[in-house]
Amino acid sequence: MAEQAHSPHRAVADAVGPDLPLGEGLACIALGVVSLLLAGVLPSILGALADEQRLSASGIGLTATFESLSMALATVAASTWLPPVRLKLTAMAGLLALTLADFATMHTHGAGVMVARTVAGLPEGVLLWIMTSMIARTTTPERWAGIFFTVSTASQLVIAFVFARWVLPQHGADGGFAGLALASLLGLPLVLWLPGRLAPLPKPAGESGMPPPRGQFALLATLIYVGATATVGIYIQPLAHEAGLDADVARTAVWVSLAAQIAGGLSATLLAGHVRYFTAFIAATVTFVAVWAAFLLHPPAWAFIAANAAGGLMGLFMSPFLVPMTIEADPSRRAAVLSGGTQVLAGALGPFATSFVVRDNDVHGAIYLGYAGLLVGILLIAVLHFTTTHSAIARNIPQV
C-alpha cells in the first residue's frame, strides 16, 4: 500500500522491484512511441502505395499483417526469453535496425514492400517490449498505459497531419518512409535515459515462463477483440473511396481520429482506478457497432470523418484497460508483459483475415468480419469478468 502512495510525478511506482526515476520511465514510454509511430499513418501510407499501383487492395492487408506479425512475435519472444538487462544496448540496436528497414522500403513494389516491412517489425517489437516491461511492473498500469497511448497518439497525430498535408501529396509513399526513418534516428538520444535493467517478475516454483491458463484466456480475449477493430481500421481509405470520397477526406479522417484518440487516452488516464475494465469494453463495443454501421451507409465527408473520430476516441479509451484485465486474470503479471505483443499480433491477424473477404472494388467484408470478431471478443471478456467476480464474491473479496 505504501508503494501506491507514490506520486507518479516524482517516480514510477513499481509493484515489482524498486521505483524507477521518472525520467527512466518516460524514456521507456518514448521508445514505445517510436515503435508504433507508423501506426498513425499506416492507412494513409499503404493507401498511397495502392494509389501508386505498388500494392493491391489485398496487399494492403497482407503488408500490415506481416509487419504486425513480426513485431508481435519479436515482442512475445523477448518477453518470454530475454531477461530485462542491457536495455540501453538493446534499444540502440533496435533503433538503428528500424531506421535501415524504413529506408529499405523506399522504391519497393508488391512483395518487396512486404519483405521490408516484415523486417521492420522485428526491431519495432523489441522496442515495444522494453516499454511494456516497464508498464507491467507499475502499481497503476492502466494509468501508465494511458500516458503511453496519449503521448503515442499525439505523436502519430503530428506525423499524420504532416504526411497528409505535405509529405504524401508531394513526395508519395517513399517520402513517408524516409520521414519515418529520420524519426527513428531522432530516438537515439532516448537511450541515455533508459534504465540499465528492470526487476525480474515473480515466477512460482515449478511453473514455466508462460502465463497460467486464466492469463492465457485474457490474452485470447485481447487477441480477438483488438483483432476485430483492426479489420476495419486499415481500410479507411478504400472505405472512403467506396463512399464517393477522395483520398484527402480519408487522410483527414485519419488525423482527426488521432486527435480524438488523444482525448480518449487522457480520459483513460484520469479514470484509472475508478472505472472497471468491463465497463470500458461495453462502451467501446456499442461505439464500434454504430461507427461501422455509418460506414456501410456511404456517409458524406463530414459524417465519415466524425464517425471515424468517434471510433478512435473510444478505441484508445478502452486500450489501457487491457492491462488491468490481464493482471486481474494473472496476478504474476506475466500475461501483462505479453499484452502489448498480443495487441500487435491482433493488428496482424485482423487485416490478414480481412484480406480474404475484400476485393479491389468492395471492402465492406471487413466490417462484417469486424462485427463477428467484436461479438466473440466481448463474450470472452464477459466470461473472464463474471467468473472473476463470482470467485471474489465466494471468497468475500470486495470488487473495485
Write a brief caption for the model.
By secondary structure, the protein is mainly alpha-helical.
Kindly list the characteristics that best describe this protein:
two-stranded antiparallel ribbon; Growth Hormone, Chain: A; mainly alpha
Commentary on this structure:
- The chain is mostly helical.
- It contains 14 helices and two strands.
- Strand 1 (11-12) and strand 2 (20-21) form a beta hairpin.
- The longest helix has 46 residues, at 141-186.
- Residues 1-9 and 392-400 have low confidence and may be disordered.
Secondary structure layout:
Layout lengths: L10 E2 L7 E2 H14 L6 H10 L5 H25 L5 H19 L5 H25 L5 H46 L26 H21 L2 H7 L4 H25 L5 H20 L4 H18 L3 H8 L4 H21 L10 H30 L6
Antiparallel strand pairs: 1-2
Q: State the share of residues found in helices, binned by percent.
A: over 70%
Report how far apart the termini are.
15 Å
Global shape: globular
Low-confidence stretches: 1-9, 392-400
Going by CATH, the homologous superfamily would be MFS general substrate transporter like domains
CATH A-level architecture? Up-down Bundle
Order of helices and strands: EEHHHHHHHHHHHHHH
Average the pLDDT over all residues and give the rounded result.
87
In CATH terms, what is the fold-level topology?
Growth Hormone, Chain: A
Rg is: 20 Å
The counted number of beta strands is: 2
Query: What is the strand arrangement across the widest sheet?
Result: 1-2
Structural class: mainly alpha
Number of domains: 1
